[in-house]
């Protein structure tokens, strides 16, 4: 189960990173976006259209893989819990995708892909630094670590892709908090992306 859930997240992450990093860049490079922007369509609408199009594709990918996983287990008790895990994976991957989409407006696709991957790993591994920070016993380093942890996406706190959460549902308040927390990250990166895209010279 753990392997199946991890595979779901990795496949969606790959889709978000590779498609997201080239989604806007290719449109700008080939200037195909000018055909749409010549119509009564704002740059914000264009960017959001691209965003929601790929988000829908990622969601379909996750739903398909989750259905396969449920067919494999043939356990009706897992279905509801797996749906909550699906939403968790979807929200995390969408956060990474919104960052990559924003970065692809201002830097090369390969760099935006690498930044997106680093951001994902950073969000999962930032808590592992805690042990080394405590060993150093340096107040300055401890303070820096607390700031870094605060501004990280903290994926590690809401990492529910395990058999434990298939058997036992995530508490409702944690589930609602997760959606709201990741939604704020998504809105933040989309706002930055729209702001930069509005100012970008694409002619």
Question: What is this entry, summarized?
Answer:
Helix content is 81%, strand content 0%.
Main attributes?
203 residues; 9 helices; 81% helix; 0% strand
The rough form would be described as globular
In total, the number of strands is 0
Give the rounded overall mean pLDDT: 84
Spans of at least 5 consecutive residues whose pLDDT stays below 50 are: none
What string, H for helix and E for strand, traces the elements in order?
HHHHHHHHH
Oligomer: single chain
What fraction strand?
under 5%
The number of helical runs is: 9
Share of helix, binned:
over 70%
Summarize the biggest pleated sheet: none
* First-to-last CA distance: 49 Å
**How much is the radius of gyration in Å?**
19 Å
Indicate the structural class: mainly alpha
General description of the model:
- The chain has 203 residues and is an all-alpha fold.
- The chain has nine helices and no strands.
- It has helices spanning 2-29, 33-37, 43-73, 76-106, 109-125, 129-136, 139-150, 163-167, 172-199.
- Helix 1 runs antiparallel to helix 5.
- The mean pLDDT is 84.
């Amino acid at each position: 189960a753990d392997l199946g859930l991890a595979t779901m997240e990795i496949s969606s992450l790959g889709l978000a990173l590779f498609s997201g990093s080239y989604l806007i860049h290719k449109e700008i490079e080939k200037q195909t976006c000018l055909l749409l922007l010549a119509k009564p369509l704002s740059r914000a609408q264009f960017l959001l259209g691209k965003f929601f199009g790929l988000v829908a594709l990622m969601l379909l990918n996750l739903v398909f893989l989750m259905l396969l996983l449920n067919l494999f287990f043939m356990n009706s008790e897992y279905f509801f819990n797996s749906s909550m895990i699906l939403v968790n994976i979807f929200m995390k991957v969408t956060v990474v995708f919104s960052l990559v989409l924003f970065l692809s407006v201002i830097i090369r696709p390969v760099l935006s892909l690498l930044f997106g991957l680093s951001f994902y790993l950073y969000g999962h591994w930032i808590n592992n630094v805690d042990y080394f920070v405590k060993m150093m016993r340096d107040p300055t380093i401890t303070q820096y670590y607390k700031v870094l942890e605060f501004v990280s996406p903290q994926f590690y706190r809401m990492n529910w892709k395990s058999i434990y959460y298939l058997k036992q549902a995530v508490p409702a308040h944690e589930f609602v908090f997760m959606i709201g927390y990741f939604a704020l990250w998504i809105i933040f990166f989309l706002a930055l992306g729209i702001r930069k895209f509005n100012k970008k010279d694409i002619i």
